[in-house]
Amino acid sequence: MYTHIERIYNTVGRNLGLRDYSNNINSWTEWAFEAELLIGSRDTFEEREFTYTSTGAQATGTITFSANPSNGDKISVNGVDLIFIDTSGGSGTNITGLSNAQPHQVIIGGSLSVTLTALVSSLNGTVVSSSIPAQTTPGLNFTESLEGYSFVGSGGNTLTITKDAIGFDGNNFTLSSDNANAECSGSHLTGGKGIFLNQQLRLPDNMVRVLGVRAGTGDSSFRHSELLKPMAVHKERVGKDALDTQQRALRYYIQGNRLNIQHDQITEITVVCSTYPVDDRGYPMIKDSHTTAVAQYIMWQHKNIDYINGRLSMYVVKDLEKRWYFLCGKARGDDNMPTAEELRQIGKIWNTMVPVKSTRGLLDL
Question: What is the pTM of this model?
Answer without folding.
Answer: 0.71
